[in-house]
């Protein structure tokens, strides 16, 4: 394919309810969408960076800048390309994995649309639907938490994940166990909010039979996670720390995790995400697909990825309605706790023009030649 240009599109989507994690509260999800225009087809990419560098060092305006200044020009200068070459072309530029992932996703979508092939088949999916968990934010009080969890269980979600932070950890887990019983698949996510000196406190979660504790310690503390994993019985899962197949291999080798949360944006794209999946399968490490409050575009791609055989735990691939009253695509709707894997070419979904226009705040066209 030859690149004709990339349209950057800033969208601002109100959340159905505030989403609080250990790093902050979101009431609106601002994100950057990419329309990749090639000589053969158009494809959509979604950059999962947040407005501010709170989850990771990336943020929307940084992603837009590096795309405009370096990534799109490099791809344009590379001559004919396909999705499998994008990461290599962009490799000289350090970091910016979410921006790179968005560009590769758009190229991949365009390529697969041109060839009439669905992303799920390209990635190696073996399921036509995936079980869905839900991520529940930090609440003001336990009553609000129990109401929220009860509502999600009533909707059919098969696994509950509680966001935790110091001061909101053992008690919310205990309350959910007491109210909803030991059969609920339950896990927690600290988003790096603790240190190794909290090990004894985190061990108090052990009696609650959690599936895992996700990213308790800072992103760069693999040794700390390895030490913690020996001090608690709850399995340790890594999210923020896993930025590539290489870091995943190191984490597994060190014993820093026994489960991996795969987020394509965090690791530079869906093709690297598949490599991490393959690596984890080879080491018998279960994986699941995380979420970054994606629109229907990113959600479609995540659901395709989550249908690979190594994704043996329910992911955060929730229905659109978990976050948005109106999505930019036809909404993903929960069916008995599952989402259907799209079957159309590429992502298998497209933006609805009116819905997309309603949430767009700005656009910018980056031509391939200038
Ligand atoms: Mg996480």
TrEMBL record:
Residues 142-235 form the Mandelate racemase/muconate lactonizing enzyme C-terminal domain. The keyword Lyase applies. InterPro entries: Enolase-like_C_sf, Enolase-like_N, Enolase_C-like, Mandelate_racemase_C, Mandelate_racemase_N_dom, OSBS/NAAAR. One of its GO terms (molecular function) is O-succinylbenzoate synthase activity. It is an enzyme of class 4 (lyase). Its EC number is 4.2.1.113. Its cofactor is a divalent metal cation. The keyword Lyase applies. GO terms for biological process: menaquinone biosynthetic process. Keywords: Lyase, Magnesium, Metal-binding. This is o-succinylbenzoate synthase. It comes from Nocardioides szechwanensis.
